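Good morning N.,

You mentioned wanting to compare the apo and holo forms, so I went ahead and generated the holo version with magnesium ion. This is what I fed in:
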Amino acid sequence: MDEQTKGNILVIGNSGVGKSTLINAVLGEKAAYTAWGGDMGTYELHRYEGKNLPFDLIDTIGFSPENERKTIKEIRSWLKKEYMGKTVSDGINVVWFCVDGTSGKLFANTLECFAKSVSDWKSIPVIIVITKSYSVPDREQNIRMIHDILSRQKKLKLNVQKVIPVVSEPFFITESTFAPAEGITELIEYTNALMPEGKKAASEDIGRHIRKKRSMQAQALVGGYVAAAVAVAAVPIPFPDHFLLIPLETAMINGIANHYGVKKNSGYEQALKYLLELGAVTAAAKAALEALKAVPGLTLGAVTINAIVAGSIVAGLGEACIGIFELVSKGEKTLEDSNFGWIKDMVEQNISVKKILQIAEKINITKKKGNKDIADEINSEFQ
Ligand SMILES: Nc1nc2c(ncn2[C@@H]2O[C@H](COP(=O)(O)OP(=O)(O)OP(=O)(O)O)[C@@H](O)[C@H]2O)c(=O)[nH]1
Ligand SMILES: [Mg+2]
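and this is what came out, ligand included:
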């Protein structure tokens, strides 16, 4: 799509809500600078090209109570310069107004300030993006809260078209518990639907991009569970005791199924049970452990080997599930006929003792044995 026809999305919101992190998640690359703690975040406006997307993304300086007016002024003058004096609504097709999902109490105030500052943009469609929506129960509540505020305060006069909770990057609570990335593909789809006809991506183009994005996100999801499995398994106990991985595998399978919109009916429940049996750490792990014993020169300790085997099995199971649920979501396969031979094949293709040996040998050579190093090595080998 050439520059003339490409749309622009303005990403605004309070400082530190995660605008730049969101932009990176949508682009699929670390293009925008993000800040941690006291670091300075975004300090100038920047347009990022949405490769394969029908729009570019404009990252802005975050508002804070003391700089709100100044920030809006800067955004306005930057837009004026960029669009050579045209009005904001000529240049900007959709606004993503970001609010922090972990501080719902601030929604009313934040929305009011935003509405006041942009009262002359009221024709531009707005998507309210609830960033950092790590807590699943809070998501519904936060959406409701925003709808309540909008309907109670008519004077807000914002052209809000949709409220979408997102997690841009997996959020780890402990080494083995995390909130996976979510909501990004929905945001892209909705935004495309709001673009004016001439700028909208053809449905097959956006479909292709969404599919790619969806599989990248599913892979990131598996990557998170691999890190979790490595952390859980990095203890010197014999493998058959690793029932601890079952809840983790269950959560991963459910997560991937949700990601691909697979219905949770009785066929799904059966497939889930079957997948857990296939991915049972005991059988696959025994084979891998036997094979590892026979490798000459391997000096890895039991803790490291446990971590490698568990992480690799979870990675293989995850990759298989991505393939399986993708086929189900496309309607090419069904879970409703109890004919699971194809599922078995896909899992067996992905959980391979050969791959586990390769990973162990690499870690043996590099001597990088931290949990994160092990998880990174496994993820790079599988994806
Ligand atoms: N794990 C995780 N961290 C996030 C997420 N969103 C934001 N963060 C973190 O929150 C911090 C602030 O994020 P930024 O993207 O820099 O926020 P910003 O809105 O661009 O901030 P300013 O540029 O200062 O306005 C960073 O440490 C991010 O890593 C998310 O979805 N997951
Ligand atoms: Mg920023």
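Residues 206-382 form one domain.

Happy to go through it together on a call whenever suits you.

Best,
F.
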